[in-house]
Amino acid sequence: MPVIVNLDVVLAQRKIRSNELAKAIGITESNLSLLKSGKVKGVRFATIAAICRYLDCTPGDILGYVPSDEDLTIEE
After folding, report:
1. Taking all residues of the chain, what is their mean pLDDT, rounded to a whole number?
2. What three-state secondary structure class fits 63?
3. Among 19, 39, 48, 57, whose Cα sits 20 to 30 Å from the Cα of 64?
4. Any bridge partners for residue 4, and if so which?
5. Contact 5, 63 (CB under 8 A)
6. What is the CATH number of the domain that holds 57?
7. Structural domain count, the chain
8. What is the DSSP string of 12-26?
9. So what's the pLDDT on residue 37?
């Protein structure tokens, strides 16, 4: 997948545990784990906003993009 999730890096830099973040933003630890591993097909902007607000970061800090041929077609 061309979009990569760097959430675990930002959490480590801020010395915040996943369970603390999950509780603070109101999602389950299992959903946060799926997001961290990149195993989700979508995420709400409200969730990204809550993560960024709590971690004092921007979406670009937690999400990255690596060009590949996969991003030329959209899965539905």
Report:
1. 91
2. strand
3. 19
4. 64
5. yes
6. 1.10.260.40
7. 1
8. HHHT--HHHHHHHHT
9. 92
What are 20's two structure tokens?
């603390």
pTM: 0.85
AA letter at 19: N
Give dist(CA 54, CA 52) in Å, integer.
Answer: 6
Q: Which domain holds residue 27?
A: 3-72
Length of the chain: 76
Task: Quote the tokens at residue 49.
Answer: 């906003």
For 2, the 3-state DSSP assignment is coil
Whether the predicted pLDDT of 74 surpasses 80:
no
Q: What is the pLDDT of residue 41?
A: 86
